[in-house]
Amino acid sequence: MPPAQSDPVPTGLWVEVQQVVLSAGERAPNAPDDTARVDFVARIRGFLMADAPMGAEATVRTLAGRQVSGRLTAVNPRNPADFGNPVPELLRLGEEAREALEKAASG
Fold first, then answer.
1. 75 domain residue, yes or no
2. What is the pLDDT of residues 42-71, one digit of tens each?
3. Which of 29, 15, 91, 94 is nearest to 59 (CA)?
4. How many whole angstroms separate alpha carbon 16 and alpha carbon 103?
5. b vs e for 41-79, b when ≥16 Cβ sit within 10 Å of the residue's Cβ?
6. Integer-rounded Cα radius of gyration of the chain
7. Could you tell me the residue range of the domain that residue 41 belongs to?
8. 60 falls within a domain
9. Which H/E stretch holds residue 68?
């Protein structure tokens, strides 16, 4: 169950952050007017690195291991292609498998 809007989102949950890549004034001059008027925003999903309230700046660790900061916008975000709701156990399983393979390869 996601936390209440006023509660901080706990560390370790699967979340989505957004960061502005290009503000409206930085868009390419040949972009259509309706495109040029809005920011170009990246949506990044990962595991929350520290408790944070919705709407605040937060850092996530992606499945690729990158740490990315942005404005916290969603908890357990649904895939936009509608592959269904995320399954936290499966998200963590991939990390555990990667760690086991790296440990086995190193000796």
1. yes
2. 999 999 999 999 999 999 999 889 999 999
3. 15
4. 29
5. eeebbbbbbeebebeeebbbeeeeeeebebbbbbbbeee
6. 17
7. 14-106
8. yes
9. strand 67-75
